[in-house]
Design brief:
Low-confidence stretches: 9-25
Order of helices and strands: HEHHHEEEEEEEH
Strand content: 15-25%
Distance between the termini: 65 Å
Structural class: alpha+beta
Strand order of the largest sheet: 4-3-2-1-8
Length: 201
């Protein structure tokens, strides 16, 4: 192969390389936030998404049963009837159950959540990174490398707690975003951004 043929081949390679297109770069996220999910944050989120009406109804029921219990005690002391005693004991059991449902059951739910995290991830904390783009968000879990991509049209509601933004994607599923975890953007700007996306879907 003479020098002229070598130069021609080099010229062809150069032309091919010049015609190759670079892959388009993805647009950077408008917002990005790191969030640590643990038992305390899970408890805070549970309280934030619980129905306020249900809470008021529960507390109202406890108050009514306590008043009824007091009246039954007074009636039993006055009459000493077996029926009065049974009604008083029944009221006491209802009070115990209502208090249990408001105090003990939430603690047991958190304990079950922690046990589930240990089984699935070997830890009681999850480290999430959530990136928000123009049309969708992507949330990755550091512990298992999974990524969940969701369009804003599937986000139906924004709620807030002291430390979290909570984005509802179904009845029982929420995206957790820490208010102090933003590495791109900030909490105030994000609130306006996500509200516009949810209301304008």
């Amino acid at each position: 192969m003479d020098q002229e043929e070598i130069r021609e081949e080099e010229s062809e390679v150069t032309e091919i390389e010049e015609t190759e297109e670079e892959a388009p770069a993805l647009d950077p996220p408008k917002f990005s936030a790191n969030t640590v999910i643990n038992a305390e944050i899970q408890r805070e989120a549970s309280e934030a998404v619980a129905s306020k009406n249900a809470k008021y109804v529960s507390y109202g029921c406890i108050a009514l049963v306590v008043v009824a219990f007091g009246l039954l005690v007074w009636q039993y002391v006055a009459t000493r009837t077996t029926t009065g005693l049974l009604m008083m004991l029944l009221s006491a059991l209802v009070i115990v159950y209502l208090i249990y449902s408001q105090v003990t059951m939430p603690k047991k739910a958190i304990a079950r959540w922690e046990a589930s995290m240990r089984r699935s991830f070997g830890t009681t904390e999850l480290h999430l990174t959530t990136e928000f783009y123009n049309l969708s968000l992507a949330q990755s879990v550091q512990e298992d490398g999974s990524v969940n991509v969701q369009g804003y049209s599937d986000i139906s509601e924004l709620r807030e707690s002291e430390h979290l933004f909570l984005l509802r994607r179904s009845k029982q599923q929420w995206f957790f975003v820490a208010k102090d975890g933003f590495t791109v953007g900030n909490a105030e700007e994000f609130r306006s951004f996500i509200t516009d996306r949810i209301e304008g879907k």
